[in-house]
Structures are given as structure tokens and as C-alpha cells.
Amino acid sequence: MKIHEFVRQPQAWLMAGLSFTTISQAAPDPNWIEHDRARPQPPKVEPGTFSSADQPGRPPGDAVVLFDGKDLSQWVSLDGTPTQWIVRDGYMECVKGSGYVRTLQNFGDCQLHVEWATPTPPHGEGQGRGNSGVFFGLDRYEIQVLDSYDNTTYADGSAGSIYGQYPPLVNVTRPPGQWQVYDIVYTAPRFDADGKVKSPARITAFHNGVLIQNNVEVTGPTSWLERAPYKAHPEKTPISLQDHGNPVRYRNIWVRELGKPGKKEFTLSNAVLDNYAGTYEREPNSLVKIVREDHHLVVTLEGVRFVMFAESPTRFFAKTTDVQYQFPEGEGKPDHVVISVGEGGMNAKRVR
């Protein structure tokens, strides 16, 4: 597609896996000369199709499908327990008082496609009308979902805003009851070992095919009553949808991971993690301590502290050294864990 066609069809940037973010920050790889014929070709991806008013489109071939209209198997409540949101007629709907829903899988830099519709006939006004939100960083960085069709509220809280920080460039909201489309490119913030911000989160977003956020720098967690500062968190975290008391509907949710490939990561419930916490004996007089801190297990092995990331409900890995922990299948507190460092595996029995 030629550049002038991209300008006329902004959604084409997203289907092609491009964004104003990647274009503005990209730089030639110094490991390759210009027009190097030995340079590897880009991987081929089957393109998706655009949605219509009645029919959701098809995701690109490399997308992770988070909701296809059938079930909520990819979603849980914030604490990891089953959600009370409902599924019917190909969409998922927020149930008042049920709380946020989040993905089981974690995502860092990504391209997210979400379709949503507010109730019709509309009820309420301002922030009380068709309110929900799409969150990155678990519940930290919100792109507002709101019925902004002939409904006035503060600009940085309208549909497509980075809540409390950046109003959308334009209001392209369709009437209530009609399906709206968000295509969002999210770049996760990075933190150094001391928890200081190395680079902030950035967001580019299209609403119904129109650019509404152009590579904006998120100042920190979005908040109703304050401009909150950053607090360090893992690069990959769940994506969440907000329960704000309105029966907002969602369909055709998919995500494409950007950047370097890596292991899948999941955020498990605190109850599951608490079952794994304890003290294990690797060999006589050699103890391994496992504790839960927030949504992660933290282990101390030979006096070295490792934050562990869930690759599955029973397998965990560290990112600084090839340390892996494999717990047995089954519910309740395990009686042992298999620990491996680079190779092999050693059995450690629970002692308390």
C-alpha cells in the first residue's frame, strides 16, 4: 500500500502492524548495510479483515484472540477468581458490581483491537453514561470508554481519552448501541533496578479508524483525583476492562505482541501463589524460601533473590538467570518443587 493510501485509511497502519510510535522511534539496524540482500525477510502474516456493523472482522494470523464471542476462558476478575461478566449473542457484557475483568495472559508492547458498544437507549449523562475503560498495566493506564455521542463531560474523560491526561484529538463516537472500534498501540514503561522510570508508557490510538492519540507519553497511572506518579511494575501485565456500573458490551478482542519474542507470562490468583509459598529443603541444611509479593512469587536460592514469572499454572521462571521452578499438578499446597538452574533439576521437599 502506498503512503497516501495509509493516510486516507488509518486502520491500515494497524493491520500492517505499524504505528506512528514505531515509525517515529525506529532507527536502521547498524548490523546491516543498506539494501543488504542477506538481510532476513519479514515474517509473513495473514492479514485480518475489518468489521462491519453486524459482523466482527477476522484477526490477523499472528494475533492472540482474547475474545471471539464464545466464552470468557481468557478472562478472570482482578484477583484471579472467575468473573461474573456474561456472554451472549457474540459479545461479553459488564455486570454492575462484578468488578473489572482482566486477561490471564500478560502483555507488554502490543497492538490491541477492541470493539465496544454502549447501552441503547442511553441512560444518565456525563461520566454516568456508558462508562467503562480499557486498561494496560493491569489497572494503571486507561483509555476511556464512554458514550460521548451528544454527551458532554470533561474533555480528558471523554471517549478515547487517556483518562485525566490527554483528550482525544477528535470525537468520532458513534450513536449508542452501535459498535465502536479501538485500535491501540501500547509501549510499556521501563524501570531501572532502583524503580526509576527509564522510559514512560506511550500510546497511539485510533477510534473508528481515526487517529485520536498520537504517540502520547503517559505521565503515570491514570487517576480520577490526582496526577499519580509512576511506580515500578513488570513490563508484561494483564489487560483489563472496567466495571463502572454500566452494561457496556465488548466483542472481537485480539492482541499482537510487539518487540522481541519471549515466553508467555500469566498472572495467577493470589490463592494459587499462596499455596506455593513456603520453605523447601533442597538438600540437608540447604533451605529455599518462597514468598508471594503482589502478583509474583519471590524465591531466595543460595542467598540470591529472584522474582519468578508464571509460564503456566505450575511452572515459573526468572529473567535474570535461567532459574526455573516446577510444581506438581493438583490443588492445595504441594509437597515438593523441582528446581533447575541452567540444566537438570533438583527436588526440594516442603518443610513448612
Concise summary:
The protein is mainly beta and 352 residues long.
Task: Describe the model.
The chain has about 350 residues and is mainly beta. The protein folds into 2 domains: about 5-255, Exo-inulinase, domain 1 (Jelly Rolls, Sandwich), CATH 2.60.120.560; about 270-350, Beta Barrel (Lipocalin). About 5% of the residues lie in helices and about 35% in strands. The chain is built from 4 helices and 23 strands. The chain has helices spanning about 5-10, 10-15, 20-25, 270-275; strands at about 65, 75, 85-90, 90-95, 100-105, 110-115, 130-135, 140-145, 180-185, 190, 195-200, 200-205, 210-215, 240, 250-255, 280-285, 285-295, 295-300, 305-310, 315, 325, 335-340, 345-350. β10 (about 190) and β11 (about 195-200) form a beta hairpin. It starts with a helix and ends with a strand.
Characteristic key phrases:
2 domains; eight-stranded antiparallel β-barrel; 4 helices; Jelly Rolls; 352 residues; mainly beta; Lipocalin; disordered N terminus
